[in-house]
Specification:
It contains 1 helix and 12 strands, in the order H-E-E-E-E-E-E-E-E-E-E-E-E. By secondary structure, the protein is mostly beta strands.
Length: 182
């Protein structure tokens, strides 16, 4: 009797092995991990020369700092703090201005407020900032609007590194690009 149970088990095992021999179990799907950032925040110092309409040929020296956040699509927001030194008749404080920047990594609109030490007057300003150049107008209660142009060392703001994906498979499978496990 023990032999018949053993033979029945062996025969059942053989039939099941034959039945499963043609079945292929598919490998699992790979998993992906993403690296990189979708935005980048950067603080940079810069220097420049600023000319105002009606201010003569002597420029003011500009020393400043920008803090910007640039998204991977190029959208840029941030701030700029600029200190102007008047070079005409000796080096004296000219103006201090804090501005908000908004636009793309290579062109931003600028709105700011500050104080002009030479005129002893507060100011409001509007402008456009691009790599190595800025133009705009500062408004005072008296004499009114004063257009300006600035050449500066601040280039284009940089976008974050593009995101990358890395695939992996559970053991004992191996990842094969573009997206499968074998």
């Amino acid at each position: 009797m023990k032999n018949s149970v053993f033979f029945a088990a062996v025969i059942a095992a053989l039939f099941s092995a034959t039945a499963f021999a043609g079945v292929v179990i598919p490998p699992p799907s790979p998993t992906f991990t993403t690296s990189g950032a979708d935005s980048k925040t950067e603080t940079r110092g810069y220097a420049g020369l600023n000319w105002t309409l009606g201010g003569g040929y002597t420029p003011a020296l500009v020393l400043g700092v920008t803090n910007t956040k640039v998204k991977s699509n190029g959208d840029t927001t941030g701030g700029r703090l600029a200190f102007h030194l008047n070079l005409l008749g000796g080096i004296t404080p000219g103006m201090l201005k804090l501005s908000y920047l908004n636009g793309k990594e290579d062109l931003q609109g600028e709105v700011g407020a500050g104080y002009n030490f030479i005129k002893s007057a507060p100011l409001l300003g509007l402008g456009v900032n691009a790599p190595y150049v800025a133009v705009g107008v500062d408004g005072y209660l008296n004499p009114g609007l004063v257009p300006y142009g600035t050449l500066h060392s601040q280039g284009k703001f940089s976008k974050p590194q593009p995101q990358s994906s890395v695939g992996s498979c559970p053991a004992p499978f191996t990842f094969t690009p573009p997206a499968s496990c074998i």
